[in-house]
Amino acid sequence: PKFFAIAWREALEIFKTPVYLYNIGAIGFLMPIILGVSMYPSMSEENTRDAAMRFFLSFASTFYAQPWIRAGFWMAVGILIGLFMGGIGQPATTSLTREGKRVWLVKTLPFTTQDQIHGRLTCSFAFGLLATAPSLTLVFILLKATLTDVLIGIGTVLICIIFTGTLGLLIDAIHPNFNLVSPQHAIKRSFNLGMMTIGILLLLAGMGFGGYKLIEMEILTLSEIPILLIGFLALLSVISAVLYFSVRRVWTARLIGYNEG
Predict the structure, then answer these.
(1) Which end of the chain has fewer CB atoms at under 10 Å, N or C?
(2) Is pLDDT at 196 greater than 60 in this prediction?
(3) What is the DSSP string of the chain?
(4) pTM
């Protein structure tokens, strides 16, 4: 398919852009190591280790052992990893902006609008998986995830990656900046990428705080959390579909009008 050529072109550009490789490497590969090293000194203390073990055993025996709550736990893990590590440094958020002075080439390439969009989204999803895979795999190993747990976690991450990639491409299609002289410059000074990052962090913080307060006020119980998370993932899926068709409409309407400078 033609869109693979666009995806490959995007991937090569990202590999040649140290800033993006650093973001993917730091978030996807280094962060789990950094967290593990930073937590090791405190966890190596006997009292802290014993307290953590007692908490985990209590949680495992009372809640984690229940299949419904266990499924909710893995959905929550997938949402956290998928939105945070799949959304921070999202390449689709600068996909058009990185074209810079070459925007004329985008308008003259022998590809349809659909090919352009599918290629850029394919690249975005691939790098999203690359960024989330190490942390998700580490959690699977540490918690001895079953096949069901793995399927739930991966499925949730995929939904989140599709959402962040499609949202990022729509943001950049609406508000590209072609005044920047290079892809590195485009990434370092990307307003879209900054807003995307802040938005993802606020969403995760709001979900965590809101869930905690609802449980504390006894409005929400642990057994109801999986239902809430399923509803949230269904909402993300619907929003992703709406965003995709919005990207197609915006791209078709604006591509000819994009000009450098």
Answers:
(1) C
(2) yes
(3) -THHHHHHHHHHHHHT-HHHHHHHIIIIIIHHHHHHHHHHHHHHSHHHHHHHHHHHHHHIIIIITSHHHHHHHHHHHHHHHHHHHHHTT-GGGGTTGGGGGGHHHHHHSS--HHHHHHHHHHHHHHHHHHHHHHHHHHHHHHTT--HHHHHHHHHHHHHHHHHHHHHHHHHHHHS--TT-SSHHHHHHT-HHHHHHHHHHHHHHHHHHHHHHHHHHTTSS-GGGHHHHHHHHHHHHHHHHHHHHHHHHHHHHHHGGG----
(4) 0.81
Taking the C-alpha atoms of residue 226 and residue 217, their distance in angstroms, rounded to an integer, is 18
Q: Which amino acid is at 108?
A: T
Q: At what angle do helices 31-44 and 46-59 cross, to 10 degrees?
A: 110
